[in-house]
Specification:
Elements lengths: L4 H25 L7 E5 L5 H14 L4 E5 L8 H6 L5 E5 L11 H19 L6 E5 L2 H5 L5 H9 L6 E5 L5 H6 L2 E4 L20
Parallel strand pairs: 1-5, 1-6, 2-3, 2-4, 4-5
The structure holds adenosine-5'-triphosphate (ATP) and magnesium ion.
């Protein structure tokens, strides 16, 4: 039997109310107030840019942030040029050694240790509301740092502190410990279509 538009509208409204009831119940159940750890992995584009976008939100609310980028690109990135100037941001790019292009294990190890010291300090600092550890997961993939140290520092950090971490793959211990994990899939990328990497999009 065909429904009249009025009947259909009533059914739609009932469905929407049911959905709202479910969402309201979930909202009522989420009462805990504390900082969260967020991990973004996967081969698709959008991990670092999402982390910096979230940091912009935190800054907008007057919060303080520390950034540690564990991989230094060839060029100065837009995020460093922009957020590096921001009075609420302490911005660190892993000094020498680790880039996408060159490999020098000794230098890389030294740089990884130094960057981890900065990250560890931020994770222990009450005044830092938001910590961004960009591309940190490569340090575990290449064996320069121990993921258990990160898991421990995350567990012991100030209760209100939010942390975001990025990288294509992450070790099991980290995957198991974070509050939120999103995996960004690569459905298509302009690069595969022959479009050259560009400022403002890639770096
Ligand atoms: P973005 O910084 O744009 O959010 P990302 O952090 O998700 O990217 P990374 O894995 O860190 O990506 O890759 C670093 C660089 O490679 C970035 O310049 C990004 O734009 C580019 N890139 C990301 N995903 C792809 C892909 N699937 N194919 C080609 N290039 C990519
Ligand atoms: Mg990235």
């Amino acid at each position: 039997m065909e429904r009249t538009p009025e009947q259909q509208a009533q059914i739609d409204m009932a469905k929407r109310l049911k959905k709202k009831e479910v969402v309201d119940k979930k909202i009522a159940a989420a009462t805990e107030e504390r900082g969260v750890s967020i991990l973004l992995t996967g081969n698709g584009k959008g991990k670092s840019s999402s982390a910096f976008g979230t940091m912009a939100r935190a800054l907008g609310h007057g919060q303080n942030a520390t950034v540690v980028q564990f991989i230094k690109g060839r060029k100065e990135t837009g995020e460093q040029l922009f957020f590096g100037q921001h009075p609420q941001v302490s911005f660190h790019v892993m000094g020498h050694g680790f880039t996408w292009e060159t490999r020098d294990p000794e230098l890389e190890q030294k740089a990884a240790n130094q960057a981890w010291e900065v990250a560890k300090q931020a994770l222990a600092d009450e005044r830092v509301n938001f910590v961004l550890l960009d591309e940190i997961t490569y340090m575990y993939k290449y064996g320069y740092l121990d993921a258990d140290d990160l898991v421990e520092a995350l567990a012991n950090r100030p209760a209100h502190q939010n942390v975001m971490m990025t990288g294509r793959t992450a070790p099991r211990a980290l995957l198991d410990s974070v509050d939120t994990h999103s995996k960004i899939a690569n459905e298509r990328h302009a690069f595969e279509g022959g479009v050259k990497a560009q400022a403002g999009i890639e770096w």
